[in-house]
Amino acid sequence: MRFSKYILTLLFITGTIWANAQVADTSFTLQKCLDIAIKNNLQVKQSNANAELARVDYRQAIENLLPNISGSASRSFNSGRAISPLTNSYVNQSATNDNYGLTGSMTLFNGFSLINAIKATSLAFQAGKMNFQAAKDAVTVNVITSYLAILDDQEILTASKSQLAYQKETVDRLTILEKQGANKAASDLTDQQGQLAANEVSVVNSQNALDAAKLTLFQIMNIPYQAGVKFEDVNAENLRGDYGSDPDQVYQTALQRFAAVKAATLSREAAQKNVSSLRGQLAPSITLGGGLNTAYSNTAQQSVFIDSTTSAVKGLYAQGPAGKETIFATNANTASQDISYRDQLKNNYSSYVSIGINIPIFLNGTRRNALSRAKINALYARDVEENAKIVLKQNVEQAYLNMMAAYKKYQVLMDQVKAYTESFRIYKLRFDAGVLTSVDYIFAKNNLDAATVNMISAKYDYFITSKILDYYQGKLTWQ
Fold it and tell me: Which of 286, 289, 301, 474 is deepest in the core (most CB within 10 A)?
């Protein structure tokens, strides 16, 4: 029973936390959407992984300048007739032999291949970071345009609902007049009811467009769709006709700061350095080497002095003053003793230093073909860079043209809304006074409604295209 209470308490706490999280997620700011999209976007993650791989390649290219050092240790067991590694003579016994070695080598010269490889991988690493930034910028501009599209649709929906509410008031008023027989024409009420239905359709269409825009943004953020989410407004009211730069100035700035173009330039430079690196591999290389070696064998022995004895040498005499004299000799008495492990390692120590030159004469064409492929890749990278610049210039010109067109359209539509607002006011007064048909009234209202929606769209069109120009110049912000 007590355990069940614990389970229920845990479920209640978990549900409360989840509910609070749901409440917290019912409001989104543009910055929050940007953070979520950059964190979840798979292309951004892939670009980051590619940049990390390029960083590893760059680090490896640097470490290729360092010497290669390796150690070895081995133990062998021999039984029967074999050559002793210490005396180089045959022994006929069981033996245990240990060998230790430490070798190293480094390249002194190889046609500057290693140096150029460092430069190539460094440029490739920088290109990888620029591609990572370009991926984040692309997601950022997609989020901003989608977010502003939502705000655009929200304003249009608000305007549509306002128009619908106003039309409902008109229909309600005409319904009362119809009951009193005070309408000028028999079709006044039905005409306004038809207009009310048209306004209801506009609200439905506006809501559908808003829902579609929200779904698009959630897909960009790569999170489940939430229908009840609110999106906080941003300052999209202050439209200025002068962007501050002409298309050529924007393009020149973009050449220096746009991450995608910088990545293409760095990739082209990396490909050119890779050609130089592979060309260096066709030149002779000079290497320096050295090593240390020592060994041990359990068959190794040494003679140990015990004592000495003096005795007459049989058959040998010396002629002295008194005649023949016996010759005595002193002999050392020794015994065989195993040499210790430590002493053998010290006594068998050897070292060497070598310098060599390697001249590639014929390697089945592998290096020359690799060089040819590198040259083709360099040409391809150059074309990619040129294409990136051409596409950038075209996109800048198109975005600038769209921005100015949207601004001009917005200015005209503001005047149009003012004019239609005044016109509709007059039409309404005349319609209420019974001196104007419902057809003229509906025509004036439709003109005002259409102009209002068009002005809202033009405002956001300008704001979006101005942000795209900021994006190309590497100074994209959401304020």
Answer: 474
